[in-house]
Design a protein that fits this description.
heterodimer; A: 335 residues; alpha/beta; FAD/NAD(P)-binding domain; 2 domains; 5-stranded parallel beta sheet; 7 helices; 27% strand; elongated; B: 602 residues; mainly alpha; Fumarate Reductase Cytochrome B subunit; Rossmann fold; 31 helices
Chain lengths: 335, 602
């Protein structure tokens, strides 16, 4: 019995997992990815919290078995038409796909750190982002990281910041910061590592251990307060001004490396799809599902499903569970 | 012409006379109050300017051009200009001609206020009436002009866009009474004169109406009814006048000499300010101009409504509206009477009391040692939030081989402008004093500032002997003119944003454009120079929420994108930061844009 096509847009962990599950249920998933490789942001990451599983392994697991999934990379969506039967998806390579059910797993993007100019990303030599640091962990190559003695992590760069037009919490960066602070301390055991946070929002199983380890084992210094500005001296050293709100005192620390924990924004394609397919978005720009509690993966329009980080920041295990749930929802819709 | 009645009086003139007496008394008392509220020095200044021939001529010219012809409105929108000058000048001419007629034909009645107004009722044609035909024609002609103005005014209420206004003022009750009685006056006069046209004579407006409605009009009992109505309309208008926006008619006559004498606002609702407040005609031009008009809910906080609250002495609303204002000064720029809303708001803010004492104790221990140099560069606190500004300025200074020192490499003392804007002059004075002593002891001859906000306070509030305060747009332009800074021109299109404090605040419009045109092509914004739109980030507003600022910034960015530029250039770090979040094209600092010309090969 040949079952229907299902078009899945976005080839990150969520899109891949939705496709794999649909295939297992006998459908023919068509997975469309804008970039030249599948895997999304996971490709840029080195290790995943809380246990430090290698991202490479997870990705290999996900992409290793794609038999029966028709996947296309370097594809841009030109237009999507809704008809009585379902959707027609036209792409820039000239192909078009008919589908009764359409799954959007368009993901997120990281806040462009340049937009917080006071932190000096792309202005000062030794200011990097969380994504840059992961790249360094992977390749061990970055001219900006030269045996640093003092390292700072700035939490909530472009999250929970109305002036950066982003009020929402990005949810995963606190855990990432704690993970990265511990990892960098492992690499540079002599360095002093600071984390500047507003609140620490880590939750979930074994996250607390990771946090306690960061303090006890790695001696990471957690300072509650926002960084106000960063300046640079002639030698390229950074001066970080912040307030320790627990002591109620301003502080100024000289640093060799500053890591900006950039927050999560809706992906660039969220807005165009929202207009094209009439999916409402919240004030934060992420897609709003039909019912946030009982139907988090279903859009208001029939036959349209939304899953993964396009409906808000999520961890990898959450994304995977949501992908599987979505596959079941699609199956229920089609049968 | 000869008189119809021996006594030359009829009870119907009473409504007019009562209104007239009321309005005259009100204005005279008001005039005395305003004059008494002025300081002695201001009063002397005003008196002296009245008798200076050049100034007296200026006063007369301004009164004629502004009050009667509304020249400024003509420039803004010819339809709006015609509407206002038709009513104002037409009415003025009817009054003047009425007096001339009275003076010529019945000189002994020239002293009666009502005689020239109701001339057609009291006089009738005789064999020599040909002598009056000039007046018949002229009176009807001006009546026609006024009526055309009134028709346009009615249309404006329905469709203000026809007159170039998106929004008009919401009228208060007294404004409405004034408006409707004003509209009624002239048609009623037309009808009243139509009734008597058979007896007293008339011209192309009044005779036809008399002939068309002969049956009604020839009944002498109806005549007085028509004149009663005309008089009542006049009386109602004049009684409503002091409490409505029409107070601007007499008040402007007082305001013009005060303005030309160069008086300053010292209190938000006394003296010069009071004269300005009564002169506000509530035209609402400031509503469209206000950057806050980007979102509807803030419309009620624009200048025209502030003036209304000041008139009513509603302290709570006055303070709230004043604190919300961005202090961008645009309303003042478009205002027909140049109402000094910036000064009035500053005076309101200065009168507010604060419970919080500020601790500036650190000032005493802050004594930086600065290397002696020709140019002292003050980057200001905002520049540490936009580090690219300071970096680009330092680069340009080095390239031009300038002997310079930075005054605040690790943060210095605030220029004082945010405190001044918050009305806290006393605290600001401490900063100004400290900075003045640092600058004067540095031995520099030029103080270079890269922030429009700092620049304005250095210009307005500091007295720096022998030191030239220069904004970096002026300074780098001068260096380029002198050939000391050589930059190469590229093909990038720059849209230059005039920061409020630099443009409207200090009048610097040309230098930044000249300098930028040496490194690229200027892509004009839709509204620029004095009409430039505030970025929405202004430190001027004390209470405007981030949510309310977002639409302002978005509208302002749209204005900058008018000619599809490659870059938006600002000469103020605050505008830079504000724009950067919302602009689809890169936002660069002025100095950063000049650095583009350094890297380029010639």
């Amino acid at each position: 019995m040949a079952k229907d096509n299902v078009v899945v847009i976005g080839g990150g962990p969520c899109g891949i997992e939705v496709s794999r599950n649909l295939r297992d249920m006998g459908y023919t998933p068509i997975l469309l990815e804008q970039q030249s490789e599948l895997g999304g942001h996971l490709r840029r990451w080195d290790r995943l919290f809380p246990e430090g599983v290698e991202a490479r392994k997870v990705l290999k697991e996900l992409t290793g078995d794609l038999k029966g999934v028709k996947w296309f990379t370097d594809v841009n969506i030109e237009s999507i038409q809704k008809s009585r039967k379902g959707y027609t998806v036209n792409v820039d390579t000239g192909m078009s796909f008919e589908t009764k059910a359409l799954v959007l797993t368009t993901g997120f993007k990281l806040f462009p750190a340049e937009n917080k100019q006071e932190y000096g990303y792309n202005i000062y030599e030794r200011v990097i982002t969380n994504a840059d640091l992961e790249q360094f962990f992977k390749t061990r190559k970055d001219s900006r990281i030269q045996n640093p003695k003092t390292i700072g992590f700035v939490h909530c760069v472009g999250s929970r910041d109305e002036k950066a037009c982003n009020r929402q919490c990005s949810k995963v960066c606190c855990a990432t910061a704690v993970k990265q602070a511990s990892e960098i301390k492992e690499l540079f055991p002599d360095a002093t590592v600071y984390c500047f946070y507003m609140d620490l929002r880590l939750f979930g199983r074994s996250y607390e251990d990771m946090y306690l380890n960061a303090q006890r084992k790695y001696g990471v210094r957690f300072i509650r307060g926002r960084v106000s500005e960063v300046s640079e001296d002639i030698d390229g050293k950074l001066y970080v001004k912040a307030e320790d709100t627990l002591l109620g005192k301003p502080m100024k620390i000289k640093m060799d490396l500053l890591v900006l924990m950039t927050g999560i924004l809706p992906g660039d394609s969220t807005q165009p799809f929202s207009e094209m397919l009439k999916i409402p978005t919240g004030e934060d720009g992420f897609f709003t599902p039909k019912d946030t509690i009982l139907e988090p993966c279903v859009a208001k329009e029939s036959g349209l499903f939304i899953a993964g980080a396009c409906t808000g920041p999520k961890t990898i295990p959450e994304t995977i569970s949501e992908a599987r749930a979505t596959a079941i929802q699609v199956h229920k819709y089609l049968s | 012409m000869r008189e119809r009645f021996l006594i030359g009086f009829d009870p119907f003139v009473l409504p007019f006379m009562i209104g007239m007496a009321f309005v005259l008394t009100y204005c005279i008392v008001g005039l005395i109050r305003v004059i008494l509220q002025l300081s002695k020095a201001d009063r002397r200044k005003l008196a002296a300017s009245l008798f200076k021939p050049a100034n007296a001529w200026r006063n007369l010219r301004d009164m004629f051009c502004d009050c009667l012809l509304h020249v400024k409105l003509w420039k803004r929108n010819p339809r709006l200009g015609y509407m206002h000058s038709a009513i104002a000048f037409g009415w003025f001419m009817i009054i003047v001609l009425g007096h001339i007629e009275t003076f010529i034909f019945v000189p002994k009645k020239a002293g009666l206020f009502y005689y020239p107004i109701f001339f057609r009722y009291f006089m009738q044609m005789d064999n020599y009436s040909l002598r009056g035909s000039f007046f018949f024609f002229a009176m009807d002609f001006f009546l026609l002009i006024i009526m055309s103005g009134i028709l346009l005014a009615m249309y404006k209420r329905i469709r203000s866009r026809f007159f170039g206004m998106r929004r008009t003022t919401r009228l208060s009750l007294t404004d409405r009474i004034g408006l409707y009685s004003l509209w009624a006056i002239f048609p009623l006069r037309w009808i009243a004169e139509g009734f008597t046209a058979g007896i007293a004579g008339g011209s192309f407006m009044t005779i036809p109406i008399n002939m068309l409605l002969k049956n009604i009009m020839s009944n002498p009992e109806n005549i007085t009814v028509a004149w009663w109505l005309y008089s009542i309309a006049l009386g109602t208008f004049m009684i409503a006048l002091p409490f409505s926006r029409y107070m601007h008619i007499p008040a402007e006559i007082l305001l013009i000499p005060m303005k030309n004498a160069g008086l300053k606002v010292y209190h938000p609702r006394k003296g010069f300010a009071l004269a300005q407040i009564y002169t506000c005609p509530s035209c609402g031009v400031c509503i469209d101009a206000c950057p806050m008009s980007a979102s509807r809910q803030n419309l009620k906080d624009t200048t025209v409504y502030l003036v209304r609250q000041i008139k009513r002495n509603n302290a709570r609303r006055m303070n709230a509206m004043t604190d919300k204002c961005l202090m961008c000064g645009k309303c003042q720029e478009v205002c027909q009477i140049a109402l000094q809303s910036y000064d009035i708001r500053m005076r309101i803010r200065e009168r507010a009391t604060y419970n919080l004492e500020l601790d500036h104790g650190y000032l005493d221990s802050y004594n930086p040692t600065l290397a002696k140099s020709k140019v002292l560069y003050y980057a200001g606190c905002m520049s540490s939030l936009t580090p690219v500004t300071g970096r680009s300025v330092r680069k340009l200074l080095d390239v031009a081989r300038i002997d310079w020192t930075q005054m605040d490499p690790e943060g210095g003392v605030c220029c004082g402008r945010p405190l001044i804007l918050a009305g806290r002059r006393k605290e600001a004075a401490r900063m100004i004093e400290k900075n003045t002593s640092i600058i004067e002891s540095s031995g520099a001859s030029i103080l270079l500032v890269s922030c429009a906000i700092c620049y304005r306070v250095f210009k307005e509030e500091y007295e720096l002997k022998g030191i030239r305060v220069m904004h970096y747009t002026e300074y780098f332009n001068e260096l380029m003119e002198e050939g000391r800074l050589k930059l190469n021109r590229g093909a990038l299109r720059y849209a230059y944003h005039d920061p409020c404090d630099l443009g409207r605040g200090c009048g610097i419009y040309e230098e930044p454009r000249e300098a930028l045109s040496r490194v690229g092509i200027i892509a004009p914004a839709e509204k620029e120079r004095a009409m430039s739109v505030c970025c929405g980030g202004s430190v001027g507003s004390l209470t405007l929420s981030q949510e309310d600022r977002i639409p302002i910034t978005q509208a302002s960015v749209q204005n900058m994108l008018y000619s599809k530029p490659d870059r938006i250039v600002t000469a103020c770090p605050l505008c830079h930061k504000t724009y950067a979040r919302y602009s689809p094209v890169p936002v660069v600092d002025f100095a950063e844009a000049l650095c583009d010309g350094l890297d380029r090969k010639g």
